[in-house]
Amino acid sequence: EACKEMMRLDRQGRPNAADILWQRFLYQASSARMGAAPDAAAIKEILGCLVKLPERGLLYMSVSLEVARRWPANQNPVVKSIFTELNMGGGGRLEKPHFLQGLKKRFDLSEARSQRIGDAIDLGRDGCIDWTTFVAACTDLGAIEFEDYLRDLFKHADSDGDGRLSQKDLRTILPRGSEEGLVKHIFQDVVGRAEEGAYIDWNMFIRQFTDSAAIAKKGNSLPTPAGGSLRSAAEEGRSGFLDMAIDQVDKARCR
């Protein structure tokens, strides 16, 4: 059946590599070689990422998806183990009802909290969560191992090397083809305003990815603009932002 699906001429209907890797006969064989179950600390770390997901900003979500796309399953044994456990349907994607049921059972979460996580992770609004999206949701970009990656990302986007990102600079971080309106909304989500002259410095940037100031203290000493406040995506109309982001994801999938 998997081989037949791979031979489909319709590109949009053809499964990608991640889908094939999660065919039952493949992921069960892989799971059998994974060894001991993840320890409690690793499980707690994953839970922490999932619980914080509904409050994550769009910049965080965009960068974490890009990281997840480049991160092979064998580099994520704990995440892979949990994905397999929650994958009751046995396909390459988690069905949302199964995901919610598994969350409540595996992590002992309330119905309301599980639902908030489920709504946040269902980016395509199709009731399914693919492997890349799940990895992105379980990735803590505030962890110290991502510091160099985030610094390189910031420096690469900083086209004139002044330690500040304009909206044009920010666009290079977002998925290719992101529309101007989406870039502006994400910029405003980070800075609090989007008029000419506004910018994102290193401290503003890193705050989107970490709950502590440990990394930010090492970086850019540029001051935050007077009156520049960081507002959450919810305060700026999170649902509207997500609709635009989902549209971009759909377009990318069709390429």
Describe the structure.
The structure is a single chain. The chain has 255 residues and is mainly alpha-helical. It contains 14 helices and 4 strands. The strands form 2 sheets. A two-stranded antiparallel sheet has the order 1-2. The chain is globular and about 55 Å long. 29% of the residues are buried. Mean pLDDT is 76; it is low at 31-36, 212-246 and 248-255.
List the helices and strands and how they pair.
Elements (H helix, E strand, L loop, with lengths): L1 H5 L10 H5 L2 H9 L7 H13 L5 H12 L7 H10 L6 E3 H12 L3 H11 L6 E3 H7 L9 H11 L6 E2 L1 H5 L8 H12 L8 E2 H6 L30 H17 L1
Antiparallel strand pairs: 1-2, 3-4
Helix pairs in contact: 5-9, 7-8
Which residues sit in consecutive blocks of at least 5 with pLDDT less than 50?
A: 31-36, 212-246, 248-255
Number of helices: 14
- Class by helix and strand content? mainly alpha
Tell me the series of helices and strands, N- to C-terminal: HHHHHHEHHEHHEHHEHH
Structure in a nutshell:
The chain has about 260 residues and is mostly helical. It is about 55% helix and about 5% strand.
Which descriptors apply to this entry?
mainly alpha, two-stranded antiparallel ribbon, globular
